[in-house]
Amino acid sequence: MRIDRVPFADVAAYLEEKDTILVPIGAQECYGPHLAMGTELRICELYATELGARAAFAVAPIVPFNYSHMFLDYPGTCSAEMSTIEDYVAQVCDGLARQGFRHFLFINIHAGSLGPLESVCRFLRAEHGAVGAVLDIFSVMRDVGGVEWTARQAPTGHGGEMVTSVALHVSPELVFMDRMKLPGPLRDFTEGMRTVSSGKVAIGCSSIQLFSNISDYAPSGIQGDPTAATAEKGRAVWEKALAFGVDAVTRFARVRLSG
């Protein structure tokens, strides 16, 4: 049930039986030459809405913007400070908790919001005795998708084969096939520091976080090769990720924390 698509009496009736709500946290940022700027936003909203329908839980409207400063070199990116994201989400969820919601599962699609969301979850517990958790969509898709990717370069990386396949399945109008191209190798920052992914560089057998912009090491705005993406692969990943989500939120709704 999308709480923005029903009268308040329906939400009140829901709260007589359940206290779980899914809160999608989206982002609008560059996804390379072939994907619309709102790709993450659309995937996140569709996933949360479908998950809520399949598992019979309430779903809040999506939070559309995120901490996307690392993409501000690309026009159309919308970004807010982490503190702004934290305050905004905390205030909205505080209001929902006062209405009776006690289990908040944040459906997240962007790494920039992980820190703020942990803080929100801890606030909700301290203030309302509520339980908070984060389901990271792309992590779930990587873990349970079960697809053998064709691309040799970062198939599950930003703008690569995985997300392009999912977009082809759920929102093909966001994929511009005629603009799809190989991203080229990721640039290394200096000798002995191999770029692995966003903010991660390998040194010997371990790594450090280097807070760079994506344009520093991937000028095209993507990390992975999307050229082998298909809607069929996307459907397989989508269905398995949703099946996991149904199981996860059903179990989460029964969690009780001490204290």
Quick summary of this structure?
It contains eight helices and seven strands, in the order H-E-H-E-H-E-H-E-H-H-E-E-E-H-H. The chain has 259 residues and is an alpha/beta fold.
Question: What keyword list fits this structure?
Answer:
4-stranded parallel beta sheet; 259 residues; Rossmann fold; 8 helices; alpha/beta; 3-stranded antiparallel beta sheet
Please characterize this protein's 3D structure.
The protein is globular. The protein is α/β, with parallel strands linked by helices and 259 residues long. The protein contains eight helices and seven strands. The two termini are 30 Å apart. The strands form two sheets. Strands 2-1-3-4 form a four-stranded parallel β-sheet, sandwiched between helices. It has a three-stranded antiparallel β-sheet with strand order 5-6-7, with no helix packed on it. It has a domain at 8-151 and 233-252: Rossmann fold.
